[in-house]
Amino acid sequence: MAEPQRIEKREITDELRESYLDYAMSVIVGRALPDVRDGLKPVHRRILWAMWDTGLTWSSKLRKSANVVGEVLGRYHPHGDVAVYDALVRMAQPFSLRYPLIHGQGNFGSVDGDSAAAMRYTEAKLSKIAEELLQDINKETVNWIPNYDGTRVEPSVLPAKLPNLLVNGSVCIAVGMATNIPPHNLGEVIEATKHLIDHPKATSEDLLQYVQGPDFPTGGVMYDKKAITEAYLTGRGAITTRALAEIVERKGGSGRDQFDIVITEIPYQVNKAELIIKIAELVQEKRIEGIRDVRDESDREGLRIVIELKTDAAPQKILNQLWQHTDLQKDFHLNMVALVDGLKPQVLSLKDVIFYYIEHRKEVVRRRAEFDLKVAKDREHILEGLAKALSVIDKIIATIKKSADKDEAHTNLMKSFKLSDLQATAILEMRLQALAALERQKIEDELKEKRKLIKDLEALLSSPQRILSTIKDELTGLTSFADERKTKLHSGGLKEFQEEDLVPQEEVVITLSQNGYIKRVPPKTFKSQKRGGKGLIGSDVGEEDFLAYFVSADTHDDILFFTDHGRVFKSKVYNIPVGSRTSKGKAVHNFLNIPVQENISAIITYAAKSINPSSYLVMVTSLGMIKKTKLQDFANIRANGLIALGLRKGDLLKWVKLSDGKQEIMIGTKFGQSIRFKESQARPMGRTAAGVRGITLHKDDTVISFDLVDTSYKSNLLLAVMDNGYAKTTPLTQYKVQNRGGKGIKTAEVTKKTGSLVALTVLTDEEELLSISTKGQILRTSLGSIRKTGRAAQGVRIMRLNPGDKIAGVICL
After folding, report:
1. Alpha-carbon distance 58 to 303, whole Å?
2. Whether 765 contacts 738, CB under 8 Å
3. Rg (CA), the chain
């Protein structure tokens, strides 16, 4: 009769919790995490053991990888053949392991992410250094466990003369935990281990005097010694690595400097092919500009990626952008989790890893010595019996001859000569050649040697210090495999990229229309033309808009936007959208919180380093008021702006200039009047002040221009431009210095033909003039072609305008 079913009632949450934990620990211990002692996961250990057990060592011939995979699957690892082959392939890849444990022949993949050829095509055997993991395994140095079906046994851990966990690292994801241990330089790890043997109280920080940090097989440069130290002290942390990149000059026929960025090493675990594709995508999307071509020139000699730059590109800025947007700069997130005692997953510091390795080697050396001692004593026992027999060989022979058979002879020898079972057997199996004098001497010499070895092994086992010395000597023997460090260490940290680190520093022209459309373009966009030309179309501003402001700046400059209501807003020049020569631009309100009822009346650009106590902003209003305020008062401007000037009713802020406080002021009016006075006559005031009078205006006249006179230039000219396209230059010496607040003197003959005065600009070493009309025509011409005349002259035509068009502004370059 069948036994009744036994059913136990349990809370499902308890059952699920326990079952999941059992499953998780099974995966963690049985498949995922490396053992701190030999640095191997079970699948790697089984592959190496199977190859060793079948004689596939360094000195043997290569064998098909499929043969190895089949051996591992059939005897030790009853999982997928793909998982086993992938593990075998990784141990053969010089770009994955710092010191490959398998010597492969055939296609074992590449740093481009190419997969290995099928296992039937590739061949493998143990590398020479891998044998150091398995040496002495047959001397009972490690514990053995049954395989999956109980038909044979496998090692639970390898003897591991090689400190493999640190040397080759390990990467895995378990259930609820992961490990990410980088590879290290063998020579450094050996020295650190020897130091900890000699100084057991040494800290991880002490050991970092020897282990500089990871040593990746793909090289590269790692940064920030402080962050590296913290990671090794705690077992967790991010280590920043960069590709080894060099900016090299390229020979070109243009006569200008041309550069390439050449990359010869990349960060660990970066796919080279995907990296190149990413760079190409960034160029295509215009997120990085200035790259002409990207070429992969890698060959069997080494890795080489060439990034060819355009002639006008800024190499360091482009390299900064590549650091920021690609895996040329990558963080390795160190997470040193490993199994301790083969069962317990722990986060380990550098000292912990080396400590557990030393403890393992102490156990291996002790068990090996015990095994060798047992073998030596067994051999000594046999040799003592043989030596005793040879001393009475005639009696031995007589005893054997009198015996009826082999068993009786064996018994008689034990009784007559007080021999052990093993000794009697050895004597019966002894050949007659051993009776020769030389053979007898060999037995005696071997006996002495064995007794000496026994004494030495017993001394070793009784001395923990000698065991440690043996470990050190064996580690020293591994230095033949050590090589130079591949990953270089940069002790300094990497500052976080600011946006300006990614933007090329170059001269640009900023245009702003009356309706608030802004853009920046390179000055070379406008080619030089002869005086009197019609100019190029400079901006598609529309019929009811015109370009009002036209300034030169550097992309890294700060830019201040002043409104006619006396408020100021701040941005970076590189934040201004890039446009083409004919594009309309973007609305300035898209990135500045300017009230709708306010219009931008002045733009100031300056380098942030220019802010000092002697820098001033000089402001002039349409009704002739002037105010001087320290630039440093505008260092911190809120997103919704600051008050820059207190205005009187009906007045508007129109011009702002940057000054050192030692200049002279030149103000011009629509009707052709101008005044020149010393800047010192306008004392510095606070941000909210209204200022003082700069010029007294005639009825219906307004200020149209304001400029500063640099008195260090003795041959200054004053450029006057009229809105119908006429201009002239006049020596500044014809303008006397007056007192602030006067009506000034005549500076141009304003007629219906010339139109009103639209610009009055002091010239120093400028060479070219950019004139822009209200309908968007732009003319670039040489200032030298504009005739010098007296103060009251009309000037010459510099630009032919279409009907209804007028000059809106000028800029000198």
Report:
1. 28
2. no
3. 44
Tell me the residue range of the domain where 24 lies.
19-184
Q: For residues 518 and 591, what is the distance between their CA atoms, to the nearest angstrom?
A: 11
* Separation of alpha carbons 531 and 727, rounded Å: 11
- 461 vs 453: CA distance, rounded Å: 12
Tens of pLDDT, residue by residue over 387-401, are: 888 888 888 888 888
**Closest to 747 (Cα-Cα) out of 674, 802, 683:** 674
Closest CA to 650 of 618, 621, 688: 621
| Residue 262 confidence (pLDDT) | 94
Q: How many residues does the chain have?
A: 813
Residues in Cβ contact with 452 at an 8 Å cutoff, skipping those fewer than 6 apart:
none
Distances in Å between the Cα of 428 and the Cα atoms of 398, 412, 749 are 13, 11, 138
DSSP structural state of residue 637? -
Regarding whether 253 and 177 lie in a shared domain, the answer is no
Asked if 212 and 227 touch (Cβ cutoff 8 Å), the reply is no
pLDDT of residue 209: 94
Distance CA 318, CA 230 (A): 31
* Helices 464-477 & 350-391 angle (0-180, nearest 10): 100
Closest CA to 482 of 159, 201, 288, 215: 215
pLDDT, mean over the chain: 86
| Residue 209 in tokens | 């005097």
Within 432-579, strands assigned E span 488-490, 507-513, 517-521, 536-537, 547-554, 558-563, 567-572
CA 247/CA 258 separation, integer angstroms: 10
User: Which member of 20, 23, 121, 713 is catalytic?
Assistant: 121
Strands 170-173 and 153-155: unpaired
The C-alpha angle with vertex 104 and arms to 100 and 109, in degrees rounded to 5, equals 85
Angstrom distance (rounded) from CA 192 to CA 206:
9
> Does the annotation count 121 as an active-site position?
yes
Q: What CATH number has the domain bearing residue 446?
A: 1.10.268.10
- Is 258 in contact with 276 (CB distance < 8 Å)? no
State which of 24-33, 576-585, 684-693 shows the largest mean pLDDT. Answer: 684-693
Residue with tokens 């000028």: 810
pLDDT, tens only, 319-362: 888 998 999 999 999 999 998 887 788 899 999 999 999 999 99
Q: Where is mean pLDDT largest: 230-239, 393-402, 633-642?
A: 230-239
What's the distance, Cα to Cα, between the start and end of the chain in Å? 108
- pLDDT tens string 722-772: 888 888 888 888 889 999 999 999 888 888 888 888 888 888 777 788 787
Q: Report which secondary-structure segment, H or E, holds 294.
A: strand 291-296
Which residues are CB-neighbours of 174 under 8 A, at least 6 positions away? 24, 27, 28, 32, 33, 345
Contact 755, 723 (CB under 8 A): yes
pTM metric for this prediction: 0.68
Tokens matching residue 789: 């005349």
Residue 30 pLDDT: 54
- 3-class SS string, 535-563: CEECCCCCCCCCEEEEEEEECCCEEEEEE
Cα(371)–Cα(142) distance, integer angstroms? 11
What is the number of structural domains in the chain?
A: 4
Same domain, 540 and 652: yes
- The answer to the question of residue 238 being in a domain is no
580 occurs within a structural domain: yes
In a domain, 513, yes or no: yes
- Answer for the pair 667, 703: CB distance below 8 angstroms, yes or no: yes
- pLDDT tens digits for range 411-424: 888 888 888 888 88
> Tell me, what DSSP letter sits at residue 639?
T
Sign, CA dihedral 642-645-651-652, equals: negative
| Amino acid symbol at 380 | E
User: What 3-state class would DSSP assign to 41?
Assistant: coil
Is 458 found in the same domain as 574?
Answer: no
The DSSP secondary structure of 87-124, one letter per residue, reads HHHHHH-TTT-SS-SEEEES----TT-PPPPPTTT-EE
